[in-house]
Amino acid sequence: MDKKRIPIGFEDFKEIREDNLYFVDKTRMIQEILDGSKVTLLTRPRRFGKTLNLSMLRRFFEDERTPEGGKIDNRRLFEGLAVMDAGEKYLAHMGQYPVISLSLKSGKQNNYRWAYGELRKRIKEEFKRHQYVLMENVLTEEEQKNFRALMSGTEDEQLYLDALRFLSECLYKYHGKEAVILIDEYDVPLENAYFRGFYDEMIGFIRSLFESALKTNPYLKLGVVTGCLRISKESIFTGLNNLEIHSVISRDYSRCFGFTDEEVQEMLAYYGFPEKFEEAKSWYDGYLFGDTEIYNPWSISSYTKSVRSGNQIATKPYWSNTSGNDIVKELVEDADEITREELEILMDGGTIEKPVHEEITFGDIHASRDNLWNFLFFTGYLRMESQRIEGETIYLEMAIPNAEIRSIYRQSIAGWFDRKVADVDRSPLIKALEEGDCKAAEDFISAQLMDTISYFDYAESYYHGFLTGLLKNNGRYSVLSNRESGNGRPDLILKEKKFMGRAIIIELKAAKSFAEMEAKCKEALVQIDAQDYAAPLAADGYRPILKYGIALYKKGCIVKGKDVGRK
To answer: Does the 424-562 domain belong in CATH 3.90.1570?
Structure first.
């Protein structure tokens, strides 16, 4: 029996159900929406199923019509799903309301005119989707004129400011029922505008659009808005007393976005790989929404597809590859001494505690380090371990969620270090190695370790990458890393770029304690001779050949040389 396709990149509930793709049932969310407030704001990190869930809500609530006004029955899409067992209290709402569905996720252009123009297109498409209201004589001449203008993409900017309220009024006159309004990724154009310098213009437009649709709209049945961040100080939602907000720290809707333990196990078992659960858990689990353990759905789906394809290594940072991760890079590159220490704690598997500000704004991100940590938390780069309340302030204990997100931090730190080292004068280190000045080499390397962002896994691979970055592109020497030489692979070889030039062999060891460092240096030097790393270099005419053993522990090092003396 053929297995269902994994719907990676599919965001239309109807398409997934009609094409019989694998679907993780989130229809219980419909009950929570109906039991909730008039307007609900749900904030979750990107790629956690917000768009798919809104598509599901639309197909459940909508009295959908063809352009000519013919009824479209979507009931079949929900056959076999959890909501069908919810009872008549909830099923009575199926297919009963006009629905306005607007996504703002495409508003990411370079300037306001282009971004605003893109959002206008989305509004135009939604009017066109509901053009059937023009088939009957339910609108006044003025309303018909404005409806046709918006459907054709009019240049009259005033019409767009309350376009959603106006559309809901027109739909009410046709259906005789208030509209369900669904707005997806509402903060995308705001984030884009903030980083591109036209924030005030964009916030003005979004505020007007939202207030007219969600605050003072008698034709609204209920509204659902999604995004990554809650943004309220800018007055988008000011005075909207029927608004209920649920972020990742809320217990409500905690199982509606992302996959739970059980859902991941069911998915892997369905495709015949139940034994892969622990591997998937270590890489993609780690989020805590309310009190529910949650997996990144994009990554789990991608991982499962890779396993099915027979790839030997299926664990990759799938989620990180869908974005530039600029906020992590910014944190790393602008880190002061305290922030560097906190990053090291996180990279070592520890936790940090910060006050949480659910009403963070883009303008507030750089006002303090705490705000930047908040931004990382709400966008999925940190997880909540626990929370406590002190006075009116909520404090979160936060950690890096899993191996996938830790790899994002590692990559950002490595990139930062490469750019930082490029500006460092490394000639004193090269000179010290040429002259056998082990103390000067120790001091230089230790100083760079103190000024970088380390992660204390005590792995030689970390220190190897650190020294390679420190020595490469030095101008006078080519650097060979773990290349074949003699009877093994020395960690680093520096070869002077001239005939019969110097060669420097470096073998490094990671010590588990300060007391072990001296012995590790000697062990490294013994290995260089025992493996005869110098033989191929001597055969190629390099002279002299200098040998160094370097032991590293946390942010310090000891350097010892063989036949080079010590100053």
So the answer is: yes
